[in-house]
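User: structure tokens for this one?
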Amino acid sequence: MPHYLSDRELKAAAPAETASFRSPVPTQVVSNGEFNPLPQTRDQQRVEARVKGLATDLSRRHGMGRRQFLASSAGMAAAFLAMNEVFGAIFDVSPAEAQTPGVADARASALAGQFIFDDQTHFVRDDFKQTGLLDLAKYAKQHWNPALTGENDLARFKFENYVKEIFVDSDTKVALLSGAPFDDPTWDLLASLVHHGPPGAADDLRRLSNAKPTSGRS
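Assistant:
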């Protein structure tokens, strides 16, 4: 797949999965290959230090190692607490969610019925033949999810599997397909709005402009 960093720029960069702290949320800007990442700021350094400190202190209460704690709901809560301490009260999170076993999981279960709108998703046409796209799945299997299957088949990126992963395997109710222009038209992606949910879910989307979403993705 194409990228926008020069060979010189790539040599000056380091892989995020090995060079950055594995926090529940990034503690510095990470590039997707289209731009040079900015250096970590002083405030981001403070957040990272605080997340590490909370993980060291609180993982014992949960009977976990630090890495396992950071991968848990309580670890995510700890990251939100750290950001609130540095940037102000932005995230709705309580200390108990990080400190007390079960509290973060209970809150996550209580919020499981939320309306979720994913505003950047992709699938490829049935006649798409650019096998270079498979490198994404192969990389994900190697570095993030060893249980991933279908990494050698473009069917993983086509409509049938898209519907399964977005609307069956996740809690997403509305998904926006975003396209990306390429000089080579065989790389072109699609753009549309896909809605899945009970009657009235579309009205929920219209009310988003008057609501305050708890999170978003773009």
